[in-house]
Amino acid sequence: MPDGASGKAHGGTGASGGREPLAEPKEGDASSKVSKELLDILVCPLGKEKVTLEGDFLVCGRCGVRFRIEEEGIPNMLIEDAVLPEGITDISQLPCQKERS
Ligand SMILES: [Zn+2]
Hints:
Blueprint: H1 30-33, H2 36-41, E1 51-54, E2 57-60, E3 66-68, H3 95-100
Antiparallel strand pairs: 1-2, 2-3
């Protein structure tokens, strides 16, 4: 008796129309600006503390300094350009900076 195992029919339904495209990340959503991989390796330049994403900024978990994320999704990690937390007038007052010296 011949083996008829080759008779496999097409499994698809064939109806491919009318399918909604998946929602794409919206422009301007900061969480899509910086990749998770990048966020994982970025740290506060002063205390090497991890930073977290808050809006258009990366915020140091220890000293609270905010680093602006530029248009291209590249965070500006220069402490000179960073936004200091309230009450801080000089980077020497930051916990991360103190620990360093
Ligand atoms: Zn810090």
